[in-house]
Amino acid sequence: MQLFRLLVRMKVFQLVGIAALAVPINTFLATGHVASTQAVMASALVMGAGVASGALWFYSRRYVGELALLSGSQPGQPPRLRISVLDFWGKREDNDVALQALVPPLQHLPESARRAMLQEPLLPLDVEGDRQYFLSVRYGKVVDPAMLHALLTGQLEGQQLSAD
Length: 164
Hints:
Elements: H1 2-31, H2 36-60, E1 66-70, E2 80-86, E3 92-98, E4 102-103, H3 111-118, E5 123-127, E6 132-135, H4 145-153
Antiparallel strand pairs: 1-2, 2-3, 4-5, 5-6
Helix pairs in contact: 1-2
Subcellular location: Mitochondrion inner membrane
Family: Belongs to the TMEM186 family.
Organism: Chlorella variabilis (Green alga)
């Protein structure tokens, strides 16, 4: 997670660097004759930096740095799921969602397919009413493997929707 946080923060420095180049480029464009290829290249540089920054921001908001199960604040209240990601500036953003909002990605898969999915670099986590997140089980540190397995297969107590 530290490396990913560094990448997200470098995105901000990348934008500052491109903005610092914009003033000399603009001055040169205003005072001298510039070939159209140079103008196109400068524009492509700025646009490329913007697209790269946007892509990093898009995925940093979806890459799960920490997944935690929170007990209910009052007795009888179902537990909640805390999904921690990074915001635009590389700071931690905690999103608390109802446990039932998580669509278990491994719920209807046979055991061999579950093992294969857990070996993938990123496991998609769909949360109803929120965005799709990406969890790295393969490269992440798992504190309680049994609890994580129960969560991802939909077998955790309080995870199923109750019938009224």
